[in-house]
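The material for today's practical consists of a large collection of protein records. There is nothing in a record beyond a sequence line and a structure line. As an example, a complete record with its sequence and its structure tokens follows:
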Amino acid sequence: QAQLVESGGGLVQPGGSLRLSCAASRTITSIYIMGWYRQAPGKQRELVATISRGANTNYADSVKGRFTISRDNAKNTVYLQMSSLGPEDTAVYYCHAATYGSSHYWGQGTQVTVSS
């Protein structure tokens, strides 16, 4: 099985909402930070949001007030609730996890397209 499995991507109209989920395998232990990155064509992969095990959050300025990251430590799952979506949010969104032992894991990515 994949170690990080994303779901929830798709096509949404401008102004709409979407929730992404990422479940980490239980074989990955001691996760410290989970987060979301995104990459649009012709652009660098950028941080969207991160959340620590203690629920401290960090957001890119471009998504503050619109996106909310949360996690369920017991389920090794992270969520990204996205609202007020615009075309600029169109990208492949990648889930990321880092352990206390500095191991890093990436999901395969899920496409989010914002278009009317």
